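Recall the central idea of this unit: under ordinary conditions, the amino acid sequence of a chain determines the structure it adopts. In this exercise we apply that idea directly, starting from the sequence alone.
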Amino acid sequence: MTFMMSNFLAVTGLSFVAVVLMMTVTAVEGRRQGRVSVVDTAWGLGFVVVAAVAALVGDGPLWRRLVMLVLVAAWGLRLSSHMHRRNAGKGEDPRYAAMLADQPGDPFLVAVRKVYAVQGLAVWFVSLPIQVSASSGRGLPFVAVIGALLWAVGLAFEALGDRQLASFKADPSNRGTVMDRGLWSWTRHPNYFGDSCVWWGIFLVAASAWPGVLTILSPVAMTYFLVFATGARLLERHMAERPGYQAYQQRTSYFLPRPPKRSVSRG
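Accordingly, the structure predicted from this sequence is:
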């Protein structure tokens, strides 16, 4: 069994249409609620939709299509559920508010152009390993196993980091302080680091069969989003003025986990 370009075009075309429809529904719901942050819930679901399309339309080995669907669904549904619970009953996310502030034109159309369309394209592009894998041949299963293991490490890191942060925020005595315990003492963004591992793992599953390795720009793009664009860097700007955060930055790794520094040097 070899890679079938015609089948890939069907998978990627239907995936693109499905993502456009989903982001359209998300934009309408965001307008109804008066907040763009509903897109955070749709983000993970978008990948699940693509994985479902790939599993149904692809003609690659059934085992790999099902593995992809399970991995992506477990990650995406957990993330969407977490984001929905976190944002429920709250107003606009300050990061989106800052992004859309003072923009000329209709606010809804600006949000469509700067948020919904951008995130929809990002979902489609980052999910290319899933799409290509669905149309690829048999490949090397042991590479897929390595990818699944890396995915498991990433999901555990992400889920545990989110749980630790939620528990920290639920304690009134921690109000106004910086979370620097558990995984958060090893990296300032354990959830984003875990997210990155998840997508490099999914890439390896795709790379187990030609031409999945050619989709390497997808996990690179996801890692870039997480580290420099809409993820960690944007959150750092938002947190910069919080008391104690600069000291936390000095003793804790930015992204890659490492043991925390024992003390902060003072000049």
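The chain has a mean pLDDT of 92.
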